């Protein structure tokens, strides 16, 4: 087996493991069109940016890493209660940050209006979650 064959295998493996960035961006734009959602970011479980809109003024690397850490801490706390984490909500002065588990690879981080209908938003996210999974 020549070196070209190994390189081809590595390239193919890389393609299989890379996220489809344009497709993810398109889906997150659809999520941002949901009433009450200001911005939507998809964050890898290990804290890397996958796609979406980082809120203006936020430092991108810090923003996404802190939400991965937040979810990890919340999962540890919920496992102590023998329950599975679903959503973390941060209520701020003028908005909310809604962090939703999206399976083993990613989490949604949404900035919403403070009075947004979170139940309706989460119902929409369930539909988008299946599509996101196909592109990760």
Q: Explain this structure to me?
A:
By secondary structure, this protein is α+β, with helices and mostly antiparallel strands. It has a single domain, classed as Beta-Lactamase (2-Layer Sandwich). 49% of the residues lie in helices and 24% in strands. It has four helices and five strands; from the N terminus they run ααββαβββα. A five-stranded antiparallel β-sheet has the order 2-1-5-4-3, with helices on both faces. Strand 1 and strand 2 form a beta hairpin. The relative contact order is 0.17. About 8% of the residues have low confidence.
How many strand units? 5
Number of domains: 1
Largest sheet: 5 strands, antiparallel
Gyration radius, rounded: 17 Å
Examine the secondary-structure arrangement and name the CATH architecture: 2-Layer Sandwich
Gross morphology is globular
Number of helices in the DSSP assignment: 4
| CATH topology grouping | Beta-Lactamase
Side-by-side strand order of the widest sheet: 2-1-5-4-3
Distance between the termini: 31 Å
Order of helices and strands: HHEEHEEEH
Low-confidence stretches: 7-17
CATH class bucket = Alpha Beta
Average per-residue pLDDT, rounded, comes to: 86
Q: Approximately how much helix is present in the residues? A: 40-55%
Quaternary structure of the protein: single chain
Q: CATH homologous superfamily, by name?
A: Dynein light chain 2a, cytoplasmic
**Helical/strand content category:** alpha+beta
Which strand-content bin applies to the residues?
A: 15-25%
């Amino acid at each position: 087996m020549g070196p070209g064959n190994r390189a081809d295998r590595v390239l193919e493996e890389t393609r299989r493991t890379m996220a489809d960035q344009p497709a993810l961006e398109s889906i997150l734009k659809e999520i941002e069109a949901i009433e009450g959602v200001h911005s939507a970011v998809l964050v890898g479980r290990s804290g890397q940016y996958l796609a979406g809109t980082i809120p203006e003024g936020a430092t991108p690397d810090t923003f996404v890493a802190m939400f991965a850490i937040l979810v990890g801490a919340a999962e540890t706390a919920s496992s102590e209660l023998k329950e599975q984490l679903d959503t973390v909500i941060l209520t701020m002065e003028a908005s909310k940050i809604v962090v939703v588990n999206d399976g083993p690879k990613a989490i949604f981080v949404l900035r919403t209006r403070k009075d947004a209908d979170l139940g309706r938003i989460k119902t929409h996210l369930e539909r988008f979650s299946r599509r996101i999974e196909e592109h990760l």
